[in-house]
C-alpha cells in the first residue's frame, strides 16, 4: 500500500510517500531523489525492497508535490529540514539512500546530525569539484568567459534569459524559479563535510556516468570513513535508476543485511 502525507519542517512543506512493510524489526529507508526529479523516480527501487524494509520517499521542497522552499536553500537547509522530521517521526535503524542531489543532502544529514543514520547509500553522488582534463578546462573557461562578456551588453529581460538558456546546463535551463537554489547547490564543495560522515556508507556509480564519473566516487571513498565503492558496468548517471536498477537494488539489499541483521 502506498500512502502520501505532507509534513511541515523548518518552514517548508514536504510531501513524503510511504511504501513497504512496517514493524520494529525492519530497517527504515529514507530515499532522496536527484535534481529535477521526485520521490516517485525512486519508487520502483523502494518497491523492490518492500518485503525487507519500510521506505519513505521524499519530494524535496521545490520538487514533485512539495512547494518551493521558503528561501534560497543550500543543501544544509534541506538536510536540517529532513533531519527534523526523521528524528521525530521515524524508527531506527534509519538508512539514507540518495541519488545525485539526494546524496548531497544525505552527506549533510550524516555530518550535521551524528547518530541519526545507521547507514547511507550514495548513488552517483555529487558535491566535489570535477577533475577536468586540459581540453575540458579550456572549453569550460572560454564558455564561462563568453557568457560574462555577453552579459555586459545584454540587459536584464527576455534577451538575457535567452542568453542564460544558450549557455546554461540542461538543469539550469529547466530550473525555472529554482535557479537560485541550483546555483547555490552546484557551487558547494562537500569535501570537508564528507570527512565528518560517521556511519557506514556504500557508494554506487555507473561506469559510463559523465555527470558524476566513477573518479568522483573514488574521491568520496577516500574522504568518507567506513565507505565502500561499487562501480556498475554499462550504465550512466540515470541508468542506475533504469537499466542498472536491479543491480543497484542487489547492492542496497546486501548493504542493509550487513548493517541491519
Structure description:
The chain has 261 residues and is of the alpha/beta class. The chain folds into two domains: 3-129 and 189-259, 3-Layer(aba) Sandwich (Rossmann fold), CATH 3.40.50.1820; 134-182, no CATH class. Helix content is 41%, strand content 19%. It has ten helices and eight strands. α2 crosses α3 (101-112) and α4 (134-153) packs antiparallel against α5. The protein is globular, with a radius of gyration of 19 Å.
User: Between the first and last Cα atoms, what is the distance in angstroms?
Assistant: 25 Å
Instruction: Please state the second-level CATH architecture of the largest domain.
Output: 3-Layer(aba) Sandwich
- What is the number of independent domains? 2
CATH superfamily of the largest domain: Alpha/Beta hydrolase fold, catalytic domain
- Estimate percent helicity: 40-55%
The helix tally amounts to: 10
Q: Summarize the biggest pleated sheet.
A: 8 strands, mixed
User: How many β strands by DSSP?
Assistant: 8
Q: What would the average pLDDT be, to the nearest integer?
A: 88
The first-level CATH class name of the largest domain: Alpha Beta
| Low-confidence residue ranges | none
Amino acid at each position: 500500500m502506498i500512502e502520501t502525507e505532507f509534513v511541515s519542517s523548518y518552514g517548508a512543506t514536504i510531501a513524503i510517500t510511504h511504501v513497504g512493510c512496517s514493524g520494529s524489526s525492519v530497517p527504515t529507508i529514507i530515499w532522496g531523489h536527484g535534481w529535477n526529479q521526485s520521490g516517485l523516480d525512486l519508487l520502483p527501487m523502494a518497491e523492490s525492497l518492500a518485503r525487507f524494509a519500510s521506505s519513505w520517499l521524499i519530494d524535496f521542497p521545490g520538487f514533485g508535490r512539495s512547494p518551493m522552499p521558503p528561501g534560497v536553500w543550500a543543501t544544509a537547509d534541506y538536510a536540517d529540514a529532513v533531519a527534523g522530521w526523521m528524528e521525530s517521526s521515524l524508527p531506527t535503524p534509519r538508512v539514507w539512500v540518495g541519488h545525485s542531489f539526494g546524496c548531497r543532502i544525505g552527506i549533510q544529514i550524516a555530518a550535521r546530525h551524528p547518530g541519526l543514520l545507521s547507514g547511507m547509500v550514495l548513488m552517483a553522488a555529487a558535491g566535489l569539484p570535477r577533475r577536468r582534463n586540459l581540453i575540458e578546462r579550456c572549453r569550460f573557461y572560454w564558455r564561462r568567459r563568453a557568457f560574462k562578456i555577453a552579459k555586459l551588453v545584454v540587459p536584464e529581460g527576455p534577451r538575457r534569459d535567452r542568453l542564460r538558456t544558450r549557455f546554461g546546463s540542461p538543469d539550469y535551463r529547466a530550473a525555472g524559479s529554482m535557479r537560485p537554489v541550483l546555483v547555490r547547490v552546484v557551487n558547494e564543495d562537500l569535501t570537508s563535510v564528507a570527512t565528518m560522515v560517521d556511519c557506514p556508507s556504500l557508494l554506487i556509480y555507473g561506469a559510463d556516468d559523465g555527470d558524476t564519473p566513477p573518479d568522483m566516487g573514488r574521491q568520496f571513498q577516500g574522504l568518507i570513513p567506513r565507505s565502500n565503492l561499487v562501480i556498475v558496468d554499462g550504465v550512466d548517471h540515470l541508468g542506475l535508476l533504469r537499466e542498472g536498477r536491479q543491480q543497484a537494488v542487489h547492492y542496497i539489499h546486501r548493504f542493509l543485511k550487513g548493517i541491519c541483521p
